[in-house]
Amino acid sequence: MTAKHPISLNEKVVLVTGGSRGIGAAIAHACAAAGAKVVVASRKQPGVDAVAQSIRDAGGEAVGFACHMGAADQIQALYEQSVAHFGRVDVLINNAATNPYFGPMLDIEEAAFDKTVDVNMKGYFYAIRGLVRHLRDRKAETGAVVNVASVVGFTGAPFQGVYAMTKAAVISMTKTLAHEVGPAGIRVNAIAPGLVDTKFASAIVNNPAIADQVVRRTPAGRVGSPDDIAGAAVYLASDAARFVHGEVLVVDGGLTTGM
Fold first, then answer.
1. What is the third-level CATH fold of 13-258?
2. In angstroms, how far is CA 167 from the centroid of its own chain?
3. Which of 23, 148, 208, 252 has a CA 20 to 30 Å removed from the CA of 192?
4. Is 0.90 surpassed by the pTM of this model?
């Protein structure tokens, strides 16, 4: 008899926010490859449709729904659409994020400040609350949340101050909710990526002075790729991590070991 591989998402429905590109798209593909039915969510429908179609082309099951993760009513609608399509949601991977401002923290304009907080912090909270309520309503015995935070949530982050502040809040949210919903069988964990080569991080990755400095301090000797983060997300979403609660898994090539 062949034993089931523990890092499997077979028979699970996984909702990935910010799934139209970069880390989110890589996570969506990895979850599908691990056997999950995947809901891809992001702000624009063409982007989520493209990722969902690419998953289906590879033999997986996926659907895409547009959702602004800074709007609580749209998050509620996202769950309603997901349940209508797949019957349930078992896992939430909170990845949607924004960073509209790069510069001294005290110079940020109010609109950019509000947008960063709405998507990166309030959006994560509303999405988690939506999953927990859904799981409770259907009396699910287990469920999982994986929050994509950042290593800048642990340290000072010049020129990314408000973004880093929201990621610190995500880490705190992860640990508190792990205590509050863990007894109900719902695990809440986070990933803290280092510098990853995405459009989102292009202001840093495409600046040789900054990127080279980061690489020199990174034992892996390179910038990360979205696929480097996707494997960690699949693990934390799977039953292989069934005894992991409130953890923040750092995936940064060793960068923070020297801090």
1. Rossmann fold (3.40.50)
2. 11
3. 208
4. yes
